């Protein structure tokens, strides 16, 4: 009979002791709640927003039905296109036509019906001189513009932006060392379920739309660069040999593990330009696209801020204002002989040595 009463008394004593030991929680004033909500709203509004990404233009920066090269958007690409169209193609067409006519002439002129007794000529000085000098002249005509193009391609101007491109099986990683070491991972966007012959999304993955780009070329994260800027590309790889290729910019550079290769481009027209890995790198080599979006300098700065980076030469953010001193805390100790409870300011604690 005494045990239940003793247990109840001990429980009551423990409850009273815990209540007296716990500090009293002061009610939060409505003004403080409103201020905190306002600060959260301001902080959310001050967060940089992502840029409005461009929709690819058909025929620009992507494969077309034409048998010619893609429209070139860089000075190097335009020089290479002129070399291809006005030197190589006419030369190949002329050599092919000459060989075809020579074969036809030999077939007709030296057929058995026209030459019952074959010629026994063993030496012809003129022919030997021609077939020695003509190939030399052809090689010289190819070598001069080719060497000039290589010299321009591998003598880049001073870079305005550096992007480190890292190949992985089977996606790309882009790093921006000039902008606070931003790093983005770029994967191919898959198709909607039911699309035959192409990888399709599963679960909560985002499916490709026409606004992202053509099938097998659209990505979830594009490389963003400013228009009119000289972009230095440094390529490497984390596993096997890949190749960073952007046909509209006349760029193709291998990404080799343990090695840094360098190339560059400068695109003036804003838009989206697509490429692919151009080195056989494994089972999913065909699913390793590249998408470069060229934007204005203002949009590029906005994108960098959205990704948490900084622009070169940008001033650091201003220091936050010092917090206002805390208001005096009133105590409830009554004054002897009066019963009043005047406010007494709390003093900061003094550190003890």
List the helices and strands and how they pair.
Blueprint: H1 2-21, H2 30-46, H3 75-109, H4 125-153, E1 161-168, E2 171-176, E3 182-186, E4 223-226, E5 231-237, E6 242-246, E7 251-255, E8 261-265, E9 271-277, E10 289-295, H5 297-306
Parallel strand pairs: 1-5, 4-10
Antiparallel strand pairs: 1-2, 2-3, 5-8, 6-7, 6-9, 9-10
Helix pairs in contact: 3-4
- Order of strands across the biggest sheet? 3-2-1-5-8
Count of helix runs = 5
Largest sheet: 5 strands, mixed
Q: What would CATH call the class of the domain at 161-306?
A: Mainly Beta
- In CATH, the homologous superfamily of the domain at 161-306 goes by the name Cupredoxins -  blue copper proteins
Span from first to last CA?
A: 56 Å
Average pLDDT works out at 82
Class by alpha and beta content: alpha+beta
User: Radius of gyration, rounded?
Assistant: 38 Å
CATH level-two architecture of the domain at 161-306: Sandwich
Q: Helix share of residues? A: 25-40%
What is the H/E order? Answer: HHHHEEEEEEEEEEH
Strand content: 15-25%
Strand tally:
10
| Inertia-based shape | elongated
CATH topology of the domain at 161-306: Immunoglobulin-like
> Regions with pLDDT < 50 over 5+ consecutive residues?
16-26, 333-353
